[in-house]
Design goal:
Pantoate--beta-alanine Ligase, Chain: A,domain 2; alpha+beta; single chain; two-stranded antiparallel ribbon; 154 residues; rod-shaped; 5 strands
Length: 154
């Protein structure tokens, strides 16, 4: 051994390889090959692809759930606009079909709907309302609902 540089750690000279050193190196190479280092197997990165596929399925499920939710909200908006429009039209039913349907259309429009049909059946007003629903960007559809309102029969 000789002292090297400025430190006090002894520097080993390269010498003949001992039996113990060869055995340690052999055991290390077996351990490394079992762990897959330097392996040429074709499944490298398969877990990443699997995680991406699972993520894509989850995102697609979320988008589908949001689309269904938007369609349900559109249906509820159409039903609300029809109910309120029919009630408002029934208040004007004594003034005739023209006044009742005009008031029903006004209230339905104020609630985000469009009156598609209106008729007077005695003092009952029967209307159909349609609303525009956008469940996904670029996809537009319509939700419709009908309502009837009039005096209490007893």
């Amino acid at each position: 051994m000789e002292r090297g540089g400025t430190g006090f750690a002894p520097r080993m000279r390269p010498g003949p390889e001992t039996h113990f050193m060869r055995a340690c190196r052999g055991a290390a190479s077996i351990f490394v090959s079992r762990m897959g280092a330097g392996s040429t197997r074709t499944d490298r990165g398969a877990a990443s692809i699997f995680v991406l596929a699972v993520g894509l399925v989850l995102v697609a499920g979320g988008v589908a759930g949001a689309a269904v939710g938007a369609a349900r909200v559109g249906r509820h908006e159409a039903r609300t606009a029809a109910d309120l429009g029919a009630l408002a039209g029934a208040m004007r039913a004594v003034e005739g079909r023209q006044a009742a349907c005009a008031r029903a259309a006004e209230i339905a429009a104020a609630n985000g709907g469009r009156l598609t049909s209106c008729r007077l059946d005695g003092f009952d007003v029967v209307i159909e309302v349609e609303t525009v629903v956008t469940p996904l960007p670029g996809l537009t559809t319509h939700a419709s609902a009908a309502a009837r309102a009039g005096p209490i029969r007893g």
